[in-house]
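Example protein was shown:

_____
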Amino acid sequence: INAEYGLHPSGLYVLVGFSDKLRLMNILIDDIQPFKEFTIRGCRECQFSNGGHLFAAVHGNVIQLYATYTFENVGNLKGHNGKVRSIIWSQDDSKIISCGVDGAVYEWSVYTSKREGESVLKTCSYTCAAVSPDGSTTFAVGSDKTLKEISDSQIQKEVPAADSVLTQVAISRSGRMLFVGTAQGSIRAMKFPLTVPGDWVEHHCHASSITKMRISYDDSYLFSVGEDACLYTFKIMDKEGRGLKAKD
């Protein structure tokens, strides 16, 4: 039973987490064929770097880094005391941001495999994090019904979610748009930069909790999947209904 997958930026490879192993697979015209296996059981989170030369995979409380083309284990990020629920690469692939059920949001150096920043709130079980294009600010959501803006290892803003548990967060590559998903299945386009109290436009779509959200490379589309086994594709437009220009 597959638990998680990560798509290579070239679109030619996919990482799939199964109950017994993590498999790197070739995407062919009419088939998907495995060509390398890693002894990571029940991987719940894996992500290729933006350049595609590395990938990160969660193995229990440890995040393992691998070279995509040599399969070498080039680093292990150790520090979480509970399951890691989300990992995200900075745009320049120099950092990884992780968060978990232990209430920790960590910033790691990919080059040294050392922790460079942390924010720990044991009363919150985090489910997802996103990082700004310049890598300086992290946005995280979890069980305490708030959206947090974190920089310099400090929580700078906490935006209440109006009694809704937020499950996912995604920021555009332009750094101008932020979206969150809720346990009720709705997606909120947040006023950004964030304000306290928060301001957003809510779109009702899924019948149950949203489990993943991603924005396309050109910031034109938002994709969401939920526990209702549905995949939604949204066209991202401004208030006047216009699609975003490529330069944005």
